[in-house]
Amino acid sequence: MTQLQDLLSDQQYRTVLKAASRAQDERQLPLVAWALGFVSLTELAAVLETANRSQNAPTPRP
pLDDT per residue over 5-28, tens digit each? Predict the structure, then answer.
């Protein structure tokens, strides 16, 4: 599973957080990182696929 923070340096991640803070939507972080040229289209797809899987994972029942 690929997470955005694994692909970026600490400085790049802070830059992405700052740029995306106006959107107030954490789901925008991968798109901001891609728009800034910090990740490739292939890496963006992997991050979004990972996020989509975790979002659609069934919730464990107690």
Answer: 899 999 999 999 888 887 777 788
How far apart are alpha carbons 19 and 50 in whole angstroms? 22
Task: Return d(Cα 58, Cα 39) in angstroms, integer.
Answer: 29
The Cα-based distances of 39 to 5, 54, 59, 60, 61 in angstroms read 11, 20, 30, 33, 36
Tell me the pTM.
0.68
CA distances to 34, 42, 50, 58 from 18, rounded to whole Å, are 14, 23, 23, 32
CB atoms within 10 A of CB 25: 10
